[in-house]
Amino acid sequence: MSFEEAVERLTERDPRYHAEGYRFLREALDFTVKLFEKPATGAARHVTARELLEGVRKFALQEYGPMARRVLAHWGIRRTEDIGQMVFRLVEMGVLGRTENDRIEDFNNGYDFETAFAAPYRAPARASRRRASAAAKT
Q: Is the pTM of this model over 0.90?
């Protein structure tokens, strides 16, 4: 079964996650393989849940910047647990592999989406106070 066929079946059975979210996840997985310098093939290519979560975070910020959290939420991805659900659904469909040590629980509490996707774009409190103070003096 192709990736697109699997996504079509998954979104028909459970529309909680949008097809674009699955496509994003696949691209984020490819990004993660490169990010962690995994070999092109073989067992050493395996990406752990923590690596994938970090790859998803970095890829989303790269692709969508300050809109990353909103874009992911639009696709039904609001927590790291959602990423785990999507990964394991793709495993069930046979388009992703897993090792005997991989567990869906490995995706639990990976990071807070507010902190991961919004905080990088907030001005530090000290700098914003300085700007406000300078503006008040003029």
A: no
Distances (CA, A) of 58 to 62, 133, 134: 6, 34, 34
Burial 78-98 (b: 16+ CB within 10 A, else e): ebbebbbbbbbbbeeeebbee
- The token pair at 56 is 């998803």
Of the CA atoms within 13 Å of residue 111, those in its CB half-sphere come to: 18
Per residue in 23-59, pLDDT tens?
A: 999 999 999 999 988 776 666 678 999 999 999 999 9
Q: What is the pLDDT of residues 65-100, one digit of tens each?
A: 999 999 999 999 999 999 999 999 999 999 998 989
Give the Cα separation of 34 and 51 in Å (integer). 11
Q: Structure tokens of 106?
A: 């490995």
How many Cβ atoms sit within 10 Å of the Cβ of residue 17? 20
Question: How many residues does this entry show for the chain?
Answer: 138
Q: Are 73 and 18 in contact (CB under 8 A)?
A: no
Distance CA 118, CA 135 (A): 25
Q: Would you kindly state where each structural domain of the chain is located, as residue ranges?
A: 3-137
